[in-house]
Amino acid sequence: MTETREPIVILERADIYQGDRPVLNDVHFEIKNGEFVYLIGRTGSGKSSLMKTLYGDLWLHTGSAKVVGYELHNIKRADIPFLRRKIGIVFQDFQLLSDRSVEDNLSFVLRATGWEQQSKISKRIAEVLMQVGLGTSQKKMPHQLSGGEQQRVVIARAMLNEPRILIADEPTGNLDPEVGDQIMQVFKTINNAGTAILMATHNYEFLKKFPARTLKCENGNVTEG
Ligand SMILES: Nc1ncnc2c1ncn2[C@@H]1O[C@H](COP(=O)(O)OP(=O)(O)OP(=O)(O)O)[C@@H](O)[C@H]1O
Q: Global pTM?
């Protein structure tokens, strides 16, 4: 069992910047394989900046970070797409391609990441849609789905390449509370099956209903909450 608790995110003395402006200083924490971690903090406290740094959208300024085996302090631009394949990213706004079906949104990502065989593509799409409770929606267009269903497709898309961690920035921010709870259940199910999750949220009800480790961004620091 030791392997399952190996850290997949390690930050040491990391400084997070937006351009030349420091946002978070001296950040150090680990996330272990299979862990569920909330990221909380007021608007502008640096949650999104921290997440963007983890998936290579912001350069790490100083310090070191290792994410799913990639050293962000040494990473080459050409390696960033490979880093992102091992991370599933889920945003608040759904960002599905509106001109194509659920199935085509998902196969687009698989083909772009090197999948070629149609039978394998179809099988994987069916698996991830089952995982998020949308087994019968392959042929639907995004506009035919509710907000909660669209977010499920986005989560399915993030799971396509079996990431070791899902990074979710306010994934329920645009949803009604009841639908948000259902999406939270989807994340819990995915986490129970072994994928680590780092989720930024303003929804403190989740912390009570679904307790988990919490990191807090405050006054330029990240602390255990
Ligand atoms: N693209 C950007 N360019 C310059 N500064 C930015 C940019 N995005 C964010 N910032 C600034 O960086 C700081 C941290 O913002 P960030 O978005 O990381 O906070 P947050 O905790 O995610 O906020 P929210 O909860 O509103 O999403 C803020 O002062 C913000 O104004």
A: 0.94
**Is any atom of ligand 1 closer than 6 Å to the C-beta of 44?**
yes
Q: What is the mean pLDDT of each run of 10 residues along the chain (225 residues)?
A: 76 95 97 97 96 95 95 94 94 89 97 96 97 94 96 97 96 92 96 97 94 97 95
- Domains parsed from the chain with CATH numbers: 2-96+164-224 (3.40.50.300)
Query: According to the model, what pLDDT value does residue 4 have?
Result: 56
The predicted structure's pLDDT at residue 92: 83
Question: Quick one: pLDDT at residue 2?
Answer: 45
Give the end-to-end CA distance of the chain in Å, rounded to a whole number.
Answer: 27
Cα 51 to Cα 58: distance, rounded to the nearest angstrom:
9
**Ligand 1 site, residue 23, Cβ cutoff 6 A:** yes
State the Cα angle at 81 between 80 and 86, rounded to 5°: 95
> Ligand 1: which of 24, 48, 54, 93 to mutate, most ligand atoms within 8 Å of CB?
48
Pocket test for ligand 1, best of 16, 17, 20, 23 (most atoms within 8 A of CB): 23
What is this model's ipTM?
A: 0.95
C-alpha span between 58 and 22 (Å, rounded): 12
Nearest residue (by CA) to ligand 1, atom 17, is 48
